[in-house]
Design goal:
Elements: H1 3-81, H2 93-100, H3 117-125, H4 131-135, H5 139-148, H6 161-170, H7 173-182
Helix pairs in contact: 2-7, 6-7
Length: 188
């Protein structure tokens, strides 16, 4: 081989490698664009699902507000008809004892799964002393009460406490007992 032939190959080989690399780069890049197109279709699907869920959540909030307004109206009409008291209507200690298999004192917040003496004290500090009071507050307010006690109360989940208190206030002892048996540690 002469020096002239070697010199030509020094130019041809890098040019061919560059050309092949360019073609491969183009093909790989084009393949990624196709994935982006699929992602945009998926994004549109997820956005429509998000809009549907937001509408459903808004409907739930509206229903909750309507129910609360109805209960408040009934509560006001009942309080006008009868003298007000912090006690629930017709507390039946025997029915409570039969359903829960333990003695129950009226408005004892400790019958709610997850509430003990110290947490009951925290609720009392916030003016929440009856089942009715506890049934009318939000889970956010329950969490605020727990947060006031410090870090050691972070393990508690108050999501079901207002619901359990409402069952106690209404005297639904059998339902409360079934719910507490089914949901360990007061969790949904």
């Amino acid at each position: 081989m002469s020096a002239e032939n070697i010199n030509i190959w020094c130019w041809i080989i890098p040019a061919l490698v560059g050309l092949i690399a360019g073609i491969l780069g183009y093909l790989i890049g084009k393949g990624k664009d196709a994935a982006v197109v699929d992602s945009s279709a998926e994004l549109a699907t997820l956005e429509s699902e998000n809009a549907r869920l937001k509408a459903e959540l808004e409907a739930c909030y509206k229903k909750l507000v309507d129910e609360a307004a109805t209960e408040k109206t009934e509560s006001i009409s009942n309080s006008l008809a009868t003298p007000s008291s912090s006690k629930s209507k017709g507390f039946d200690a025997d029915a409570a004892k039969a359903a829960l298999k333990k003695r129950v004192k009226e408005n004892d917040l400790k019958i709610v799964e997850g509430i003990g003496p110290k947490i009951e004290g925290l609720f009392h500090n916030f003016g929440i002393k009856t089942w009715k009071d506890l049934s009318e507050i939000s889970t956010v307010k329950c969490q605020e009460v727990l947060n006031s006690g410090g870090d050691r109360y972070r393990i508690h989940d108050p999501a079901s406490w207002p619901m359990q208190a409402k069952m106690a206030y209404k005297g639904q002892w059998v339902e409360l007992a079934k719910w507490q048996d089914k949901h360990k540690s007061g969790k949904f």
